[in-house]
Amino acid sequence: MQQPAYPDPVALDEALARLRQLPPLVTSWEVDALRGHLARAQNGEGFVLQGGDCAESFADCRPDVITNRLKVLLQMSLVLVHGLKSRVVRIGRFAGQYAKPRSADTETRGDVTLPSYRGDLVNAPEFDAAARAPDPQRLLEGHARSAMTVNFVRGLIDGGFADLHHPEYWDLDWVQHSPLAADYQRMVDTLGDSVRFMETLAGQPIGDFSRVEFFTSHEALLLHYEQAHTRQVPRKDGWYNLSTHFPWIGMRTADLDGAHVEYCRGIRNPVGIKVGPAMTADWVVALCRAINPHNEPGRLTLIHRMGADKIAGHLPGLIEAVRAAGCRVLWVCDPMHGNTISTPSGLKTRPFDRILAEVEQAFAIHKGCGSRLGGVHLELTGEDVTECTGGARNLSDIDLARAYRSTVDPRLNYEQALELAMKIVRVAD
């Protein structure tokens, strides 16, 4: 399901053959390290922050855009570390999130029907026949853009950009004028004092404070692309998807007998599964057993995306069923996808209050069920967009027209994302 119909099979085979020869984007050691972090988070020894674009674009593979995405995730993780008193596992929803599922294979405008836009990995968003034709050369372009993003992020982190001694490096332009600026600065100052105190006791700099681990993720949607990156590694058993550290299965492709479940069943990466209100307890338990038959810790993450008005009626039963089946999973909340609405003008948006309400309910429901919410999965950007309403500046439907840039789904802007991190700390306390 959700695979494009390429008009030239020979060109597709040639592109895939070339893709299989290119260097991987991540290493098996990094994949195994992430699985270990997720296993500890399952045991309550960490919190997962997964965030980034709904759908990356090739045009946004720019140093300023990448740096701002990294900044906002680092800022959010700083808030979470400070407030939760816990390690944070940072997973970027980028460096490969170039494909998107669609509800229909075609789009019609007037008398013209064309293939749907499926993300830059497949075709282009412009509504004309040439742009919408699936192009296998885009698979190679996607690899190149992902490699540039991964390498730039690694360079920033290894060069000290993520140094806890200097969180001022992460400041975005808004910090000086935001209603949240004072609260955030107090956290930065407190953490800086703590770092200096610990180093004074140790009598030397603590190296772990000068860099952080950072992992990539994307939806394992376009199976041609994922298979071409799936490799065996010397002196290790099994197969690794080396296009990303953490692939996930979306709700539209979570059929037990579907190709996406079959594919993810066979790789060594930790895997996420999006879980929605239409999924039954039996279905979710069967997915757990299919993807993680040996019940390995850190292997499986269930990312529930219910909507603020449905989570109370659906999530408790799933938590109880998974626990009764003895399945070891990490529970993560995606409060974005179940809270999408349309404005009178037809723009898709997500009200901040509904996003926050789902997060608040998720924490309470897990606690009430004797479970634990181990992370959040967010669509966000480091740019000054106006795509989600509400938040500290109380953006309205009218504000959306000012800077609505997403080609697919609305994202939290940098200020709303940091505000949500601060609210999470208060809710989880």
TrEMBL record:
One GO MF term: 3-deoxy-7-phosphoheptulonate synthase activity
Record bears the keyword Phosphoprotein: no
GO biological process terms on file: aromatic amino acid family biosynthetic process
Top EC class for this record: transferase
Catalytic activity: D-erythrose 4-phosphate + phosphoenolpyruvate + H2O = 7-phospho-2-dehydro-3-deoxy-D-arabino-heptonate + phosphate
Alphabetized UniProt keyword annotations: Cadmium, Cobalt, Manganese, Transferase
Names of required cofactors: Mn(2+); Co(2+); Cd(2+)
Residues reported in the UniProt entry to bind phosphoenolpyruvate: 93, 274, 305, 337
The keyword Membrane is annotated on this UniProt entry: no
Cofactor comment: Binds 1 divalent cation per subunit. The enzyme is active with manganese, cobalt or cadmium ions.
Binding site residues for Mn(2+): 54, 379, 409
EC number(s) reported in the record: 2.5.1.54
Family: Belongs to the class-II DAHP synthase family.
Protein name, UniProt field: Phospho-2-dehydro-3-deoxyheptonate aldolase
Taxonomic lineage from the root: Bacteria, Pseudomonadati, Pseudomonadota, Gammaproteobacteria, Nevskiales
